[in-house]
Protein 1
Amino acid sequence: MSSTILHLPTVDSEDTKNANIQSLFLNYWKAIEEYPSCIDLGMGMPSPSIFGSELEAQNEFVEGRQLWQANYQQQAGDRNLREAFSQLEKQRTGISYTAENVMIVSGALRGFSLVLDCLTRKKTHIVEIVPTYPLLAGQVRNVLERLGGTLTTIIPKDTKTFQITLDEVLPHIKSDSVIYLTNPNNPTGIYVPDNVLSKIIATCEEVGAYIILDEACDIPLNLNYNQKNYLDSPVVIRILSLSKTYLLAGFRLGYIVAHPQLIETFSNTYSFSDGNAPLIANKAIMKYLNTPHLMPFISQIFRNKVKLASYRFSKCSSITEFIEPEACFYIFLKIKSSKNSWLIFKELLAQGINVVPGCLFSVREDPWIRVCCCHEDDILIDHLDKLSKALDAL
């Protein structure tokens, strides 16, 4: 396996033995376990309480009431639910998807690993675009170690928003290439511009390459859906999650949207590794999908939280810059410090604050951290004030 970049930054002495992307995420959780009383601005998910009674279906789901459907179903998932997701994606993209374009999986990460297992061969050339989610990057390396292939990591020259350019990507798209990226990006919350993404997809289609789009954080802060017909390509594989969309983190629920022939391939492979489709509480999810005002409501809540957090960050002298996200509820911050992001993370933990260091997303040069800003307003303000004071004390 080869790569343009395979080295992580220097970390604490106790972590140097396993300082690679496949173990750094585990080290992150081990570090957090040492400080159980920390306030959570890292991997935190929104509390249902900030949405009030709007998430009645979610409450019924969590409490295991009548909306559970404990039954086996075909490995692609219940057809009615797949059809409902296809209609949701038609609304979001303008593409006339059907149930044959959709497969239910045990979370976005399982969908990603399934797709890689099906596409990777000894001659496969995987291209990843940094920043990227650490579990995706780790899974890529695990697959290449098992099945063979090569890896190229592209670090954008843009260090302000980490936006990729066509000149940086197109030379790496060959007939055996599999491109993967997060869109919107995790951790920046920025979408790849439509003109750039459409050209990448067109090039993949011309040469017979595949592109995997992890859309787990695709909750736009402004719900102005545009036609995205460029996604309607047999080489595009979209992976989505219900963790953030419907606040079901931990239930490992998601779905894949792709060409029907690919869905059939993925489903057949899935049956020999996972068996039937996961227990996904079909009725509860259908209740979400049949509540059209829910997503605009969630988007508005997230937009307000991001706006509040951005204002507080603009007042912190230790934050040299931050990226205004277009989606989800994370903000990526650059810290005024000569230390790397892992050391900053460890020192913040010691002061009772958990964030996510930028090195987990393969951002290795400057000290960036990712902050989750989806808490009740008074709690969020308190946590961000403590973060600002802690950063000033570093």
Protein 2
Amino acid sequence: MSVDERAGWTPPAANVTTPTSLIFSENPNMVSLDSIRMSNLQAGDLENLVTVFVGGTNGVAENTEKELFLRATTPIAYIIGRSQEKGDSLCKELEDLNPGSKAIFLKKDISILRNVDEICEELKRREKKINVLFLSAGYMSLGGRKETPEGLDHKMAVNYYSRIRFIMNLMPELTAAGSNHELSRVLTVLAAGSEADIDLDNMELTKGYTLHSCLSHCVMMTDFMMEELAKRHPKTSFSHSYPGTVKSGITNQLTGPIRLGIKVLYSVMTPWILNFRESGERHFFQITSSMYKAKDGAAGIPLNGGLDIAVGMDEVKGSGAYLLDWDGRPAGDMGIIKRYREVNAGSKIWEHTMTAIKKATSKKRLAKDDEQQEQKRREQYAAGAPNLTGWRAG
């Protein structure tokens, strides 16, 4: 029995395309599914990859993990999510696909940056190098600005700040892999190609907050941070990817008629929606193919089928910072990107991000949070609320 059959998937015949590929086949710049599958079949040469998947228990990440465990040789995956039950089940499934591999689930709410720091410290204790950091944890709601205990908007904390914190914390391990001529990749899955105007003087959106402005800021800041990171860490490849229209768990936070409407939309658009199997194949290709090489590195599965090194965000081939559409071709509204590059947006976004993260994780902020939590607990106790787990009244 093949690994595909063990996974419950029937591999398509070599000369058969999926409905999605057929619909978009008129685009000459897309990376064909045949080329991707040819590349992925060579992944057996990738041994003992150490990978980290943030938001890895469903959707695009889950199916990328399955492709990893089907194709690579004895990979190691750390999967970070919120559901212990789902995480444990997925880890068992992955290890069954690939004897000798390891899948470890770590439960954490990554909307809190101090939790991100704790997870990263655990990863650093376990591993000296990391080959792939895959960031796809997402949060969607129709509400307005809602701050975390650290003072960041919840949606922006999950979709942007926590991802950057993971990258910064784990750069030594990613650099160690790249310096050893191994695969060293960061892929953040959000909405490359959805660039729009942002307010460089109000990047935390403490005023004028809307859902559109929230998405625009997360997308544009992610774009420029990938470029800034690639400049500073040329042995690692950084990509911002749009996954296509997929049925993702990100809509789980929606309720009522909006959630129902999205489910109806999914049902009627099924022939045009990228299936998760293909999405997993495409994202696995993005994190393993030498098409998306680091600026100062060539690690990755060799190119085949007439493919070439991808053009980066700066429109330079192989620059190490890539904006990718669902089909692997370059994405991004270059008109908007160029306009913001002219006003030095990259360095401004870098400075803002470092300042916002430092403020959110500062000892002063943590002390204030602890004081507020302690006061809340004492008020609950005084009011006769049940004792909270792990706390005894003083």
Protein 3
Amino acid sequence: MRRTRLQHAGLAVLLMLGSWTAAGTLPAAANDSSTSADSSASAEAASASPGLLQAMQRDFGLSKAEAEARLAAERKATALAPAARRAAGAAFGGSWFDAGNRKLTVAVTSDAAPSTVRAVRATGARVRTVEHSARQLDTTKAHLDRLPAPAGVSGWSVDPAANTVMVNVVEDERADNDVQRFVARAREAGPVTVRTVRGAPRTFAAGTVGGDPYYTGNVRCSIGFSVHGGFVTAGHCGQPGAGVSGWDRTYIGTFQGSSFPDNDYAWVSVGSGWWTVPVVLGWGTVSDQLVRGSAEAPVGASICRSGSTTHWHCGTVLAKNETVNYSQGAVHQMTKTSVCAEPGDSGGSFISGDQAQGVTSGGWGNCSGGGETWFQPVNEILNRYGLTLHTA
């Protein structure tokens, strides 16, 4: 069992408390030639644990070589994305990782100068011409953020590949008058596309159950990432001042900061003989993963999550800066993924390769029938509270 192994290994008991997200990718990239791409993939994936590759093979239907190549391509795409955005300038329309060609694709508006297009291509990214700039799409989304949203609207975000603001409407609520009014007002704000989803989002906290959790009262959640002095997790799991206990019900520490709704993040101080290590748990399914940084993976990249309820699952980054409309209120600047989760996974870590991405917030569906899950980006949490990620 994971708990016994960690205790015998002398690792921090803290890590045994909650869900951890094991990431399915740290963007790596393929070169133009197939030969150099294969060698690059092998070199970049050399640090990937066998367990991580196995999880990607299981959840994406890839061979070992394909998983290694994807990790390498995503790592490269992540590294070149900032330079490609700078090269696009005001013509930037968004970017995403294309798993089909293993390249970062950068959208530029049709009025972009030829020199701008050449500059973007020179970074190694592919170019797609679009109608709307990222600034226009962000402005439209910001307008929607100011509108009161009914429960039948589950969220909205910029979709760079579709060059639109995607509004998600729960399938059974499409005919609701409030939903129709929201959609009509949204379309007046700018380029908007409506997508139907199967379920409404919910947070993934849970009542007290067995497993490897941390507890706040009778609520069970999962640890996200170790920071110097404690760990980060989901805001809906506890309020500032609330005490936290571990899987064995011994005292760990206290919520020092928490925000929910509007945001969904928190941090917990650690003491009383507990300590932190830069590890995301594999739960015996895959190897425990070292955390080496927090470089942000692009849309389209693979990503994995580990939680105290459902352990390891992988999927794809679907959208960033999405507003999620929970019953408790809207939460902003979330990242949407195709990874499943269930109650008790809240707060757990999303990781891409060895790079921390965020803490599990909520979603719809489950790990039997599938679904979507959102996380709050870890860099936002670190910046908000002035924390330093504990890295290997």
Protein 4
Amino acid sequence: MRNLQSFPYTHVLVLGLAKSGTAAAHLLLDSGVTVRVNDMKADEASEPVQELKSKGADIVVGSHPLSVLDDIDLVVKNPGIPYENPIVDEAVKREIPVVTEVELGGMLHEGPLIGITGSNGKTTTTTLIHEMIKADHKPVSVAGNIGEVSCEVARTTTEEETMVAELSSFQLLGTENFRPDIAVLLNLYEAHLDYHHTLQNYHNAKAKIFENQSEEDTFVYNADDQKICIYLPSVKAKQVAFSIQEKVDGAWADDERIYFYDEPIMKIADILLVGEQNLQNILAAVAAVKGIGVSNEAIRDVLTSFKGVAHRLEFVTEKNGRFFYNDSKATNILATSYALRSFKQPIILLAGGLDRGTSFESLTPYMSSVKGMVVFGETADMLADAGKQAGVEEIVKVGNMDDAVQEAYQMSVEDDVILLSPACASWDQYRTFEERGHMFTEAVHKLN
């Protein structure tokens, strides 16, 4: 496994363990750096902590004393730790650099690096890029928010191997010199304001993905998103656009085909993924992989077989002419509105979940294709009211996912889409949106 060379810091504080902190601490220790670990919740007797201690790490758990910053010249923090944390705040006051492990991964990886960020679609786009490169028989690994920790993956990659990294705003905010060869910015919406405090702060964190790029690099961006376009004058890299609205210098689509510049890639009708959002993700992926010479054949192979990332408008199966889709990741109205716009067929919508005080009136303009609804969870009545306002013909309230799927199937006919897209978080009935999605797919497969 490769270690950091010519690392400019000698005494590093790793703040917060979990996967990223543990991986960063091991990398730093193996690279000959003096490491102190501070975690409020970690158990000092646990195996991961003891393993780091046996390598020579100074372990401080159970509290955040400011003394952990003594003699420290770099802080590597868990991305989820806010900058209001007393240790982070004090480090900034002392002018100690504060980064996330993504910075270390970028320093260590020697081959091509593709970084993907955006408010929506990161995981699907990252997966598509990874699968397209793999289908072209080129060495590739995936890291970041999807898969393994970046600095851990980078320890085993080769100079010829492309690392594809999904990156959150939390991770990017903690970068100083991180520089992907190809940076992909999918879209910018309002999100994570509890962490970033203002929309501008959030957008600026995302924009860090291209901040250190030079003329030798490539910036792939959504030309349909004006919030991204305002950054273009400050981008030094070669700009490659993607658009579902017009022909651009990059990847684009008309009613029948997708293109890269003037080169037709394939027919849209042959693509397995559905929906406007996924078409944007596909075009972003095409623009990224064409930049490293991936063949059209490999792109087509993936797009004609890829059913989607689990729980993200994922095609489950077809039964007796009904088409089942699992979009359990749709934990807000915006995501569900995208899902509803993805189909031309009549839809039976399964929705509901945690009550966060949200009104669902803004969902009604997107429900013109919804012929029936099955609602559940704390928001069942509110979603039922929204359905009535939209003129939905049949609405049923149920208590569990098995009943939801049965009811949806009963009210459906051939060619209908049965769509789980809850518009709510899952925590009223399920531990995670993944658990909710698994319950849906299991119930679908139990249908006769």
